[in-house]
Amino acid sequence: MCNELDSIEHTFLDCPGFLKLLDAFLQWFNNRHSTVLTISPYDLILNQVSTSRQLSFHLKKKLRLLLLQVKHYFYTCKALQTSINCYEFFYKLTLQCKVEKLL
Asked: pTM of this prediction?
């Protein structure tokens, strides 16, 4: 997506498009839950949110699921060679949350 050598490490640690999507997601999550959460790209790869002590067990569980959605959306865009659309992503994420009764 950014014309760099493709690898898992690049996709989830260095790719500007993914990092921008992740930042937008974290802002959305923080606004929705009144948190000041940050997550390192390495924790993201492992889907590890245990470092977030400020979150309840329920919110950590929710965050893990939503982080999988962020990665899935980005990788789907990459596979289909379509551009990332944050509005589309948050629309789909909101629908998924309603289906899963996460909101």
From this structure: 0.84
